[in-house]
């Protein structure tokens, strides 16, 4: 894929600033201004930039990996036969601006003819009275369907030991992905349940706690089922926490992507570190391969009614 420099729009107010990219309608460079002069930057960002991208062979690197980090919507989520792009057409293509002000932007993308999705619209609004960003995602489909949908925030993981503690959402159970789809550098025992404290077995013996980071090197996927739609990420050395809340009635699960480092396909550009905390209505990111008994994952969509998903990312001092 040829390198394409995205258009960037910046939203700002006294509490928050953020860049919005035309590719994927993703956000980057999110900075919250907190009390005690704290500048909180909770989202991860790829270590490579325009010089590395221009000098690299990008034929096989999707656009969302070229600009990896931040947060963006995935419609449909993961890999599925109805869309040739991992995480959907909207992830790797340019969006158009519908409206913009100093602290709010609305973007839209129209899908190709014959796609099950007609268009997707996304609004990003800076809260006027606190360090928070409000999002809405509106999906218009061409036919009734059960559509895997997800959100893809990737949070920063500092390299210092015990630099990130995650207060997990409530959930019924959590499981690692099956061996067939485990990343090449996975360390977690595949297709195994986490215990109630968040401990997961690792290959070769022992276990690690999924809520304390950074973890030992490796790339892994864990899904939390039937959550309550809220997670907190505590950064004790920076003295702040990020709080992600979403509509759990539409996106009941949460996929954790441990990138420590992750994305071996872009290793030519550098190592990427972060943790995806991804609200989803999906079976991991492989919906064509849902096992018997899990074939119902996805949001029920109708061409007669728009689907709107709202969520918020906020930041507070500890």
Characterize the structure shown.
The protein is mostly beta strands and 318 residues long. It has a single domain (8-317), classed as Distorted Sandwich (Beta-galactosidase, Chain A, domain 5). The chain is 4% helix and 42% strand. The chain has three helices and 24 strands. It has helices at residues 50-54, 63-66, 89-92, and strands spanning 8-12, 16-21, 27-34, 38-40, 73-74, 96-100, 104-110, 117-126, 132-141, 145-147, 149-151, 154-155, 164-167, 173-176, 199-201, 207-209, 212-213, 218-225, 230-235, 240-246, 253-262, 272-281, 299-301, 307-317. The strands form five sheets. The protein has a nine-stranded antiparallel sheet with strand order 6-7-8-9-24-20-19-13-17, with no helix packed on it. Strands 5, 11, 12, 14, 18, 21 and 22 form a seven-stranded antiparallel sheet that branches. The chain has a four-stranded antiparallel sheet with strand order 1-2-3-4, with no helix packed on it. The N and C termini lie far apart (43 Å). 41% of the residues are buried.
Q: Can you describe this structure in just a few lines?
A:
The protein is mostly beta strands.
- How many individual helices? 3
Trace the largest sheet across and list its strands: 6-7-8-9-24-20-19-13-17
CATH first level: Mainly Beta
The CATH architecture: Distorted Sandwich
Name the poorly predicted regions: none
First and last CA, distance = 43 Å
Number of domains: 1
Counted beta strands:
24
Under CATH, the topology can be stated as Beta-galactosidase, Chain A, domain 5
Q: How can the largest sheet be summarized?
A: 9 strands, antiparallel
Overall shape: globular
Strand portion: 35-45%
- Average pLDDT confidence is 91
What is the H-and-E element order?
EEEEHHEHEEEEEEEEEEEEEEEEEEE
Query: What structural class should be given to the helix and strand makeup?
Result: mainly beta
The proportion of residues forming helix, as a percent range, comes to under 10%
Please state the CA-atom Rg, rounded to the nearest Å.
19 Å
């Amino acid at each position: 894929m040829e390198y394409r420099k995205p258009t960037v729009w910046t939203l700002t107010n006294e509490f928050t600033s953020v860049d919005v990219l035309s590719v994927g309608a993703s956000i980057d460079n999110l900075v919250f201004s907190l009390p005690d002069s704290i500048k909180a930057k909770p989202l991860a960002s790829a270590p490579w930039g325009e010089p590395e991208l221009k000098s690299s062979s990008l034929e096989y690197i999707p656009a969302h990996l070229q600009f990896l980090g931040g947060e963006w919507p995935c419609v449909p989520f993961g890999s599925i036969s109805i869309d040739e792009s991992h995480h959907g057409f909207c992830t790797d293509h340019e969006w158009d601006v519908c409206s913009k002000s100093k602290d709010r932007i609305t973007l839209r993308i129209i899908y190709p003819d014959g796609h099950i999705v007609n268009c997707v619209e996304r609004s990003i609004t800076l809260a006027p009275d606190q360090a928070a960003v409000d999002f809405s995602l509106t999906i218009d489909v061409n036919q009734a369907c059960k559509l895997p949908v997800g959100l893809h925030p990737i949070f920063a993981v500092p390299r210092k030991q015990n630099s990130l503690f995650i207060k997990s959402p409530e959930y019924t159970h959590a499981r690692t992905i099956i061996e067939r789809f485990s990343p090449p550098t996975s360390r977690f025992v595949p297709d195994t349940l986490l215990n109630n404290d968040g401990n997961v077995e690792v290959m070769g013996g022992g276990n690690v706690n999924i809520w304390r980071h950074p973890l030992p090197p490796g790339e892994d996927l864990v899904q939390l089922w039937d959550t309550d739609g809220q997670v907190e990420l505590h950064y004790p050395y920076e003295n702040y926490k990020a709080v992600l809340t979403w509509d759990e009635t539409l996106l009941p699960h949460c996929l954790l992507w441990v990138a420590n480092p992750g994305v071996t396909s872009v290793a030519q550009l550098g190592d990427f570190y972060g943790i995806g905390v991804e609200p989803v209505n999906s079976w991991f990111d492989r919906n064509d391969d849902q096992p018997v008994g899990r074939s119902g994952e996805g949001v029920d969509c109708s061409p007669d009614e728009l689907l709107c998903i709202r969520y918020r990312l906020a930041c507070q001092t500890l």
